[in-house]
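SAMPLE LOG
Freezer: B-3
Tube label: C17
Construct: single chain, 228 aa
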Amino acid sequence: MTQKAVLLLSGGIDSTTTLAIALAEGYDTYAMSFRYGQRHQVELTCAKNIAKAMAVKQHTVVDIDLRNFGASALTADIDVPKHRSDAEMREGIPITYVPARNTIFLSYAIAWAEVLAADTIFIGVNALDYSGYPDCRPEYIHAYQTMANLATRAGVEGQTELTIQTPLIDKTKAEIIQIGARLGVDYSLTLSCYDPDDDSRACGNCDSCLLRKKGFEEAEVPDPTRYQ
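STRUCTURE (predicted):
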């Protein structure tokens, strides 16, 4: 019997490559995205297009409003940092960190996984080319998986042992792009930018855009991104 998996799909490189991996491994994949009060909706358009192009079993968009808490350049009226060096990006936790975002997203994912009787959640977190986010680290994922199996009926009754798959957690952005290229991922459908314009063009200068540009260059894969 084909295994079911819930996958968190943001519309960016990492989650889209993770989706390609899940599909290549034969999972029936159910994609979940979030309208969480982020500063732009372009990523959701990308996620919907990706889900359709890659033929997931179902794609759902969950509405929550993290602007109620703010404290992030993605959910409050705070400028997105631009033109930062690699050294600057690796100093501390940046203002683009959304407090507890992955914890919140994974909580929704385990709820849907339990309803679907799915035993796997895929998330495209990365602990190398990441901007200091604490909820992208292996120790966080391990702790969350332990908690998830204590917190669900399926886990307590032994019906299902939930695993959280993070196939990209130890990969560089270049390695991720190379994996996706081998799997036929159309990266022109993706968006990484924190601050795109009204025409859905990437700014080219935020931390995420800079990591994306560097990744394509080091992977020696043409960058299909539309930049401003």
